Amino acid sequence: xxxxxxxxxxxxxxxxxxxxxxxxxxxxxxxxxxxxxxxxxxxxxxxxxxxxxxxxxxxxxxxxxxxxxxxxxxxxxxxxxxxxxxxxxxxxxxxxxxxxxxxxxxxxxxxxxxxxxxxxxxxxxxxxxxxxxxxxxxxxxxxxxxxxxxxxxxxxxxxxxxxxxxxxxxxxxxxxxxxxxxxxxxxxxxxxxxxxxxxxxxxxxxxxxxxxxxxxxxxxxxxxxxxxxxxxxxxxxxxxxxxxxxxxxxxxxxxxxxxxxxxxxxxxxxx
Length: 271
Description:
This protein is mainly alpha-helical. The protein has helices at residues 15-44, 49-78, 85-110, 115-171, 177-204, 214-254, and strands at 3-12, 260-269. The protein has one domain. It is 78% helix and 7% strand. α5 (177-204) runs antiparallel to α6. The chain is elongated and about 90 Å long.
């Protein structure tokens, strides 16, 4: 009786995410700052109560959008598999702190009745946005790294099974030298993906909001760029490992071993 063995080879789709993160960090930052500056300009020339109320409503919308995205980020962090315990709790706490700050600011703005106070509070939105602008890509990179580590673990289990099949084929007198070369490459790619993911986390984990300090802003931008590059490299490693593993499976199938039928099934994950 033949035994059917299925190997589930995971595919990570992080490049789209990191591209989205990059776009978010650039275009959203510019557009939001522009909107806030426009609000401040209107306040500077407005004394009409109705106009102030409209500006407050617009400010509330800006804050609510930030809070919604941060709450979604908390859900994502809580789904991490490798980042757990105290580290996960600290990340959630940091995000929640920003949410609390934004809620407090919203309450303050809603109660504003004069342009001078409203102008000051609108400036605070801009300052808080610096925290928001950093914490989103920072945490997304950590989440991407967590996903890579999870896939690495899955691949390690697959490699172990593939190695067993290669050994069986060798024992049966088959030439497995090419397959052994490929599986060594798989192992190297898995190892490098894990290293790159860890590098990405190490690069961003200690970053702090720039609070308007240009040198800090430049440091943060450079660090986020490097971390994204590390995640991209890790993603490429995993894709190569997936392709290699599929070639190994084809090689094993070509041996037509009497006691094993090997089939593949690809599971795709998008974070």
